[in-house]
Amino acid sequence: MATLNFKPTILTLFLSSLLILFASCKNDEDNTKEAEEIEVSQTMNAELTAPPLVPKPTGRRKAKKLVVDMEVIEEESEMTDGVKYVYWTFDGTVPGSFIRTKVGDEVEFHLKNHPDNKLPHNIDLHAVNGPGGGAESSFVAPGHEVVFSFKVLNPGLYVYHCATAPVGMHIANGMYGLILVEPEEGLPEVDREYYIMQGDFYTKGSFGEPGLQPFDMQKAIDEDADYVVFNGKVGSMTGDNALTAEVGETVRLYVGNGGPNLVSSFHVIGEIFDKVYVEGGELVNKNVQTTLIPAGGAAIVEFKIEAPGEYILVDHSIFRAFNKGALAQLKAEGKENKKVFSGKIEEGIYQPEGGGIQEMPVDEDELAASRPSDNPDLEEKMELGKNIYGRTCVACHQANGQGIPQVFPPLAEADYLNEDVKRAIDIVLHGKSGEITVNGETYNSVMTAQNISDQEVANVLTYIYNNWGNNGTEVTEEMVKAQRRN
Ligand SMILES: [Cu+2]
């Protein structure tokens, strides 16, 4: 009996798999075909948002004629403290406004080029089925406006960018953004959504060199980036601008990479991506630590926040994170979940290397202007110290001196600090490595010597000692000089 049944079974299997194969091929073709056939009901102005915000989900709404209104703006802005750059932008931000559509929408795109601009621009949307992604039809000179339209057929997260020659230069100056095409039924609901885009920048001066920095074509050709940043500048999402979420919430990040050159190894320190829509398409991967985001590509990542604290978003090509700016923060508030957090996290905490981590520029003019009187009073010292803290120490020791568990020791209510002021001065002057214990936790990492004047050391330490529950020591320039001689 068994042998008799064998052949028909195999044959049935074979035939049915053929059928499935055939059906699924047919299905794929049908998808865009069907999308083409979707009727649009009304006209609606697209909600556009500046990063890191995302427009409202399309939910169950029907396909519409969606009017997108964008303006190209060339403007000077800040790359990092004391460093300026002339950005070319869609809507005045890097990345440009987030566009949210759904399959079947007919997008009527209005692209304006501000009359104060110097150059023509255009837009190539990767969500477009058509030559140049709209580039040819959207070429627009300063003081003009063009209109073109397209129907969105394929769901996914797509990059748009300027494609005017020299293309690399327009992208390098910040001309990119994301357009999301939701499936007809919409994406599953989540609690928070954010918009993040990485980009590499090439400047005449090296990282942190103050002043207005022009674009450096040769470095761009050599792919030798001075800045690798999220959302157009160093610290766009740190400190007061950090992303936020609450414990128990699901977070969805729309992550793009404008390039022009570098591929991003996108990672969140302390989290695991529950879901990744690989390359922004339909394929969902689960339980991912680091996802690759090509230049001119994107990914959607989702995770649930299990424990409160700070999560650090990085390009895990890690020198880019700690030395070129590719670092952002997500702060999660809520109840401790000891069970989850005392267990192992994804890959252990990264042991940062000391070398020039986030070494912030010193602007000589700014310094001169802020030179205090010969005998600054405590209030003045606190003010100056706060500035220095914000410029140099905050990157590691964090906004309220709380540090980062296992990586950067706290300066708030820190027994190690309060025990010995000479030792603290020494650490700022000469750096520190080897194991130390602060508030019962051991740290074994490297702090590089801080390249700041004696007076600045005095001010910043005075600020720290007179804050966050520390013992109120006032550190004088003389005390620092004495340690410097030691
Ligand atoms: Cu352009």
What does this structure look like?
The chain is 25% helix and 31% strand. The chain has 3 domains: 37-185, Immunoglobulin-like, CATH 2.60.40; 198-333, Cupredoxins -  blue copper proteins (Immunoglobulin-like), CATH 2.60.40.420; 375-485, Cytochrome c-like domain (Cytochrome Bc1 Complex, Chain D, domain 2), CATH 1.10.760.10. Helix 8 crosses helix 11 and helix 10 (421-430) crosses helix 11. With 486 residues, it is of the alpha+beta class. The strands form 5 sheets. Strands 1, 3, 4, 6, 8 and 12 form a 6-stranded mixed β-sheet that branches. The protein has a 6-stranded mixed β-sheet with strand order 13-11-15-20-17-18. The protein has a 5-stranded mixed β-sheet with strand order 2-5-10-9-7. The chain has helices at 2-37, 135-138, 167-172, 217-221, 319-323, 338-341, 364-369, 378-397, 415-419, 421-430, 454-465, 477-485, and strands spanning 43-45, 48-49, 65-80, 83-90, 98-102, 106-113, 124-125, 144-151, 156-161, 176-182, 192-201, 211-212, 227-230, 243-246, 250-259, 264-269, 273-277, 284-288, 290-293, 297-304, 309-315, 327-333, 432-438, 441-447. It has 12 helices and 24 strands. The chain is globular and about 80 Å long. The chain binds copper (II) ion.
Question: What's the layout of helices and strands?
Answer:
Layout: H1 2-37, E1 43-45, E2 48-49, E3 65-80, E4 83-90, E5 98-102, E6 106-113, E7 124-125, H2 135-138, E8 144-151, E9 156-161, H3 167-172, E10 176-182, E11 192-201, E12 211-212, H4 217-221, E13 227-230, E14 243-246, E15 250-259, E16 264-269, E17 273-277, E18 284-288, E19 290-293, E20 297-304, E21 309-315, H5 319-323, E22 327-333, H6 338-341, H7 364-369, H8 378-397, H9 415-419, H10 421-430, E23 432-438, E24 441-447, H11 454-465, H12 477-485
Parallel strand pairs: 1-3, 3-6, 4-12, 5-10, 11-15, 14-22
Antiparallel strand pairs: 2-5, 3-4, 6-8, 7-9, 9-10, 11-13, 15-20, 16-19, 16-21, 17-18, 17-20, 21-22, 23-24
Bound molecules: copper (II) ion.
The site of copper (II) ion has 6 residues, from loops.
